[in-house]
Design brief:
This protein is mostly beta strands. It is built from three helices and five strands. Strands 1-2-3-4-5 form a five-stranded antiparallel sheet. A hairpin with a 4-residue loop joins strand 3 and strand 4. The longest helix has 10 residues. The chain starts with a strand and ends in an 11-residue tail after the last helix.
């Protein structure tokens, strides 16, 4: 376990939240032109903290041709598309509480990550 700091948005104000925990996983989902990145932590208090950050879906730039879909979409011409979006921190007592608010794939990955030991000692 170590100290974790994340930037959280409250409207235009950004604050730093700090807690003790260990990162369990990083998960990404795309929703059209936006991408949401989740970082899930096991906290020292036995809870699950989920940091969520919205931003542009940079995968739209990946194209074998020069005509990547992002260039043809008027939504991406606005500077708002290029900016990071909301950043939030949610704390849940367990994975069951996460199920109502987060993608099922993220909840399942979290349940799996919680079964993995904190450290794996290798005799190599």
């Amino acid at each position: 376990m170590g100290e974790v700091e994340v930037d959280v948005s409250d409207g235009p104000v950004i604050t730093v939240k700090r807690f003790t925990g260990r990162q369990l996983l990083r998960f990404e989902s795309q929703d059209g032109s936006r991408s949401i990145t989740y970082r899930v932590y096991a906290t020292s208090g036995g809870q699950i903290a989920v940091y969520q950050r919205e931003g542009p879906n940079w995968r739209l730039f990946i194209s074998p041709h020069e005509d990547a879909p992002v260039w043809n979409n008027p939504r991406t011409w606005s500077e708002d598309w290029w900016r990071s979006g909301q950043r939030s921190l949610s704390v849940f007592p367990d994975t069951a509480a996460m199920a109502n608010e987060l993608p099922p794939e993220l909840v399942q990955a979290t349940m799996t990550a919680l079964t993995v030991p904190d450290v794996e000692d290798l005799d190599i």
